[in-house]
Amino acid sequence: MTSEISTSHPLPSYLNPNDLGAWGIYLQQIDRVTPYLGSLSRWVETLKRPKRSLIVDVPVELDNGTIAHFEGYRVQHNTSRGPGKGGVRFHQDVCLAEVMALAAWMSIKNAAVNLPFGGAKGGIRIDARKYSKKELERVTRRYTSEIGLIIGPTKDIPAPDVNTSPQTMAWMMDTYSMNEGATATGVVTGKPISLGGSLGRVEATGRGVFVAACEAAKDLGLSVSGSRVAVQGFGNVGGTAARLFHETGAKVVAIQDHTGTIHNENGINIHDLLNYVEDHAGIMGFTEAAAISNEDFWSVSSDFLIPAALESQITIKNADQIKTKILVEGANGPTTPEADDILTRKGVYIVPDVISNAGGVTVSYFEWVQDFSSFFWSEEEINQRLERLMRDAYRSVSNVAKHHQVSLRTAAFIVACTRILEAREVRGLYP
Hints:
With 431 residues, the chain is an alpha/beta fold. The protein is built from 14 helices and 12 strands. It has helices at 22-33, 45-48, 96-112, 133-147, 166-180, 204-220, 236-247, 270-280, 294-297, 337-345, 353-356, 359-373, 379-404, 408-427; strands spanning 52-61, 67-78, 84-91, 119-125, 156-160, 228-232, 251-257, 260-263, 290-292, 304-307, 326-328, 349-351.
């Protein structure tokens, strides 16, 4: 008598697709695309299990002399197509499952745009607003030392993310270089220009969002000039996208950030608002627009809605309220699968994050290439290369969507998963 033997171990509880945290959402997305992968579906478990997850203790001495401990993470989801690539975030809600999901989405994003990278992500559970610059430097340096054994210019290349900056990357690069005994500019991207950073990097993600929005508008026969735009998040991504829409003649009618929500039916002057935010660290109090509740933001009528804050902002609770034609995801994973279905039934055209916010990692790729060659391009060249690559990636995904009669999100996952699993299959298993 023979017993049935499973070819795969059960998933740990935090890998459960029924847990609709960020990782559960990602697993559902993989399940949805699996029927389109043909013979490659035999490798699909590869996409459901991160290659490497590192949890580190980050002890530092605070300015008052006390010792504080923070938990840090670096997850390399997949490296079949190249070294890991993904940001490092400092946030009080960072956890392993979230970092795993963000790393996985980086795998998808890099493959969808056809960059020669795998997916990785990092983070430290810390409320960065509560610590001095010197304390954050010590946290960054200790974290870099702890994850130094798995990062490197040809292994895994971190970049800025939520609450991290070019200065953070400078500290990371310096720490890694000191430990290596040689300056290694290519270990991180998003660095200051003086350390090998790329021109155009700060605005790259927001510019990519705008380019993707314009391509989607072409598909729907919608003019960007004169359109109405609502933006959630007013940092580098949302602020840049809002400015480019404004300069193209669109009306940005509603904006939300961590301080609240403002609305002006006739359009908000984005240049004035950017100047205001520089002085006041938030949009609330801006006199050229009225304050409304955060909940009312989602019901503002628009042609373009740009969620450019954190993940899981559009859920089953608010999807029915949304009144827009095109949703362009500036953040990672801002729409849950249930909300995605609701919006699709309502006829909302969704440009998924893995395409629309890939501008940042694309210019990070340009920075990485420039660091290796020690030859740097002008900002105009960077922007031209970015826009061309983003348009080509959108068109490729759009064509697959039309061929299979599926959403852009499913099409992006078909393109990306096929590229990743083809690489996995050709490389084979070692040993």
